[in-house]
Amino acid sequence: MREIRVAIVGVGNCASALVQGINYYAKANPADVIGLMHYDLCGYTPKDITFVAAFDVDSRKVGKPLKEAIFAPPNCTKTITLDVSGADVVVSMGNPLDGISPHMKEYPSHRTFVVSDAKPDNIVAILKERNVDILVNYLPVGSEEATRFYADCCLASGVSMINCIPVFVGSDAGWARKFEEKGIPIVGDDIKSQMGATIIHRMLAKLFADRGVKIDRTYQLNTGGNTDFLNMLNRDRLVS
Predict the structure, then answer these.
(1) Predicted confidence (pLDDT) per residue in 78-97, tens digit
(2) The whole model's pTM is what?
(3) CA 184, CA 36: separation in Å to the nearest integer?
(4) 28, 83, 93, 98: which has the highest count of C-beta atoms within 10 A?
(5) Strand 160-163 relative to strand 92-93: parallel, antiparallel, unpaired?
(6) Is 127 among the domain residues?
(7) Is residue 21 included in any domain, yes or no?
(8) What CATH number is associated with residue 77?
(9) DSSP, residue by residue, 140-171
């Protein structure tokens, strides 16, 4: 099987978990694997996924190998494995645009982003040169302009896109049409944690319905200690 060449936009906690997870599962015994819904998809397994490009704007990550950048502040996700030998690609400077909320500047560096003063790299050129198959968008929630910028980069370079944040691209008819006309898949928008508040809330609501209970009102509290939740303190970032 041919390798799947992946580019990551936003080397934060989710990207760190993805890179670590791919390396962990690539070396694991398939018979003993837990935590994956599907280890084998049409013949592809985790060992077929290769990270060939990464983009970020934080000075502690730009210019560093991906295997180092995923552990750089303010990342604080759980360490699954330190053996990420397959992530040697150097992180390129992305285009900041609206990727960082103004209120993030009010917090200490270990909790927020430290924007590099480097000039943004040529995203389209990098995607083409490295024969990227899929771009995974892990920008902070509310990055409307930046997400659409990278969507345009995908269209210009013939790269598929997985949009992991709630900015409407894949679910927008206009954008979906652009990708369809180019013959490029677009998947999204947003992703859920494997066993986070959203899926638990959904299943509890379904349980009430299954047991004949009518729910008049429901709400979900999101509590976390990373830059994602700090970013979402600005309520304007939640509107797409």
Answers:
(1) 999 998 977 899 999 999 99
(2) 0.91
(3) 26
(4) 93
(5) unpaired
(6) yes
(7) yes
(8) 3.40.50.720
(9) PTT-HHHHHHHHHHHHHHT-EEEE-SSSSSTT
